[in-house]
Write a structure and sequence with these properties.
The complex is a heterodimer of chains A (490) and B (98). With 490 residues, chain A is an alpha/beta fold. In chain A, strands 1, 2, 3, 4, 5, 6 and 20 form a seven-stranded mixed β-sheet that branches. Chain A has a five-stranded parallel β-sheet with strand order 8-16-10-11-12. Chain B has 98 residues and is mostly beta strands. Chain B has one domain: 2Fe-2S iron-sulphur cluster binding domain, sarcosine oxidase, alpha subunit, N-terminal domain (Ubiquitin-like (UB roll)), CATH 3.10.20.440. Helix content of chain B is 7%, strand content 36%. Chain B has one helix and eight strands, in the order βββαβββββ. In chain B, strands 2, 3, 4, 5, 6, 7 and 8 form a seven-stranded mixed β-sheet that branches. The chains are: A alpha/beta (490), B mainly beta (98). At the A-B interface, β8, α5 and β9 of A face β1, α1 and β5 of B.
């Protein structure tokens, strides 16, 4: 098998020009879902050990979100994106040379407990049987439900960064960043490097977070992120108006956003006219495929999110199925690559016991330990405030079905027990995003209304297809004789 | 709404959006091309008809749903532009048969 570099024609939306759609293997040793740092590292290591590896990814090129467009970015090797971004190029290069079969533009919509994957490529559905599966589905940005967050012109900071990486696009006009977390500051620094002016950064980091984070400061001081983080903060603070201790935010506008209102813990309030408002308050695991495949979700009280119930090597209760990288709990890009390697080593140990590469395990564990240093500090410092996780009554909580926080709490008052029952009352979680944008908000709102923890209230039960797939596409799957007989007349 | 940095290179790709010619760059997604062309709304919601625009750009929010070459409910941020592509903004739900 050979790795295939994405070209405009192999990742085309047009089925007929997509040869890879017909070339998907029917069975592989290891299937890896997601070509971010964890998936790239896992696929590379497993392929180097001689396993047949299929790497499936929804995007047009490798890199995931953190190294998005790493092989195609129009910004070349310029300074705008910074060296941490370009360090991802090696991961992509190694994967492309590893012998793994890489299929971009591939959406995995189901995974059975028997490790059969349902995959769509170029509008054609396929089933692939794997002996082992590593889910490296990564993270998504935590929802930041503020009034007006559905208005055109309001976007996530990560989304804006994706436009910068993959298309060299920056917002025009007056730009405000609001929220908290490393990505917000990184984007600000990248924009400054690109010559983009920012009106303000509305920093929602609560002052008391510093006190909570302090006991973890030593770990952070020795982390690879410390020096870089500090330099980045200094650069941004010197160039942009920072409004700290922001406790409320509201986007205003009719057809598009025109202003943001804010208030701070110090009693300051104001209104800034703008054209683009970029929101961010950290990232959380993308759990849909893992949960639909049968891995239970657990509430992480430190990171304030649900994550799949896996151990440090990513091993799940479903035989042969592992989760690696930020999809198993947020640890950052460097840690994700090591967690991908650990999961790959487990797959190699199962399928090729005695492979020489298994001796690398201690080095990988040491590298992971180093990469995760300081994470607890960041988790506590950038812990999003309650008011930005559980929105005010009139704020939309579910973007797809346009359901407000008040509707949710009123339905709890009627006796609705949890997020899954709420679906039949309000359709929350039943729109096209399948709860990705509202799940945490709904669980936290319902938990608060009932006076219990999110762990007790639970999360949406997620089911395949985890991405929309047309009936025509499903019907086009190859059928065996028994399936045909079961619908024959007479 | 968005502008291309001068250092961003790449070949031109021609598409139409609601029948109007739009110039995109090879490697753009449909969502990126719409934002670069100053098209502020890509759809209206099925529930209240409110305007929406691309929000997450990574395939999770589904706010960039558009009609691509006659097929509705395509995630604009996951579809790469191609020469001659016909993009339409989507009003409400996907229509039956497209």
């Amino acid at each position: 098998m050979t790795a295939q570099f994405p070209t405009s024609d192999t990742v085309s939306y047009d089925t007929k020009s997509d040869t890879k759609a017909r070339d998907l293997p029917k069975a592989v040793d290891l299937a890896v879902v997601g070509a971010g740092p964890a998936g790239l590292a896992a696929a590379t290591l497993a392929a180097s050990a001689g396993l047949s590896v299929l790497l499936l990814d929804e995007n047009a090129g490798p890199g995931g979100q953190v190294y998005r467009a790493i092989t195609t970015s129009p910004l070349g090797e310029g300074r705008v994106l910074g060296p941490d971004y370009w360090s991802g190029a090696a991961l992509a290069r190694e994967m492309l040379a590893s012998g793994a079969t890489y299929v971009p533009g591939a959406t995995v919509w189901s995974l059975s407990r028997e490790l059969e994957l349902g995959v769509s490529v170029g509008g054609q559905a396929h089933l692939v049987q794997a002996r082992r599966v590593i889910l490296a589905t990564g993270a998504l940005e935590r929802p930041m439900p503020i009034p007006g967050w559905t208005l055109p012109g309001v976007m996530t900071a990560g989304g804006a960064q994706t436009l910068l990486k993959s298309s060299g696009l920056v917002p025009e006009g007056r730009i405000v960043l609001a929220g908290c977390g490393p990505l917000l500051w990184l984007l600000a620094a990248q924009y400054l490097e690109a010559g983009v002016r920012l009106e303000a950064i509305l920093d929602t980091t609560a002052r008391e977070n510093w006190r909570a984070a302090l006991p973890e400061a030593f770990g952070f001081l020795t982390s690879p992120y410390f020096r870089k983080g500090l330099a980045l903060l200094r650069k941004v603070r010197a160039a942009v108006r920072i409004i700290s201790g922001v406790t409320t935010l509201a986007a205003e506008g009719d057809e598009s956003v025109t202003a943001v209102r804010y208030a701070t813990a110090g009693g300051e309030s104001g209104r800034i006219e703008l054209d683009t408002l970029l929101l961010h308050q950290g990232v959380v695991p993308n759990v849909n495929l893992a949960n639909a495949a049968g891995i239970p979700l657990v509430w992480d009280a430190e990171q304030l999110c649900f994550r799949p119930d896996v151990d440090a090597a990513g091993t799940s209760p479903v035989a042969g199925l592992a989760v690696a990288g930020d999809g198993a709990g947020i640890g950052g890009a460097l840690g994700a690559a090591e967690r991908g390697r650990l999961a790959a080593l487990a797959a190699i140990a199962a399928l090729k016991p005695g492979a020489p590469v298994l001796a690398q395990r201690p080095q990988v564990e040491a590298a992971l330990h180093k990469a995760l240093r300081g994470r607890a500090f960041l988790d506590r410092l950038y812990r999003p405030a309650d008011g930005f996780r559980r929105p005010a009554p009139d704020t939309i909580a579910c973007r797809c079905e346009e359901v407000t926080a008040r509707q949710v709490t009123e339905t709890v008052a009627l006796g609705c027990a949890g997020p899954n029952q709420l679906k039949s009352f309000l359709r929350t979680g039943m729109g096209p995003c399948q709860g990705r944008m509202c799940g945490l908000t709904i669980s936290e709102l319902m938990a608060e209304a009932q006076g219990v923890t999110p762990a007790e209230i639970g999360y949406y039960r997620l089911r395949a297809p985890v991405k929309p797939i047309s009936v025509a596409e499903l019907a086009s799957l190859p059928k065996d004789e028994s399936a045909m007989k079961s619908v024959e007349r007479g | 709404m968005f502008r291309r940095l001068p250092e961003a290179s790449g070949a031109s790709v021609h598409l139409t959006v609601d029948g109007n010619p739009v110039l995109a760059r090879a490697g753009d997604t449909v969502a990126a091309a719409l934002l670069a062309a100053g098209i502020e709304h890509c759809r209206t919601t099925p529930v209240t008809g409110a305007p929406r625009a691309p929000y997450c750009l990574m395939g999770v929010c589904f706010d960039c749903l558009v009609v691509v070459d006659g097929q509705g409910n395509r995630q604009g941020c996951l579809v790469q532009v191609a020469e001659g592509m016909r993009v339409e903004t989507q009003r409400g739900k996907r229509e039956i048969g497209r």
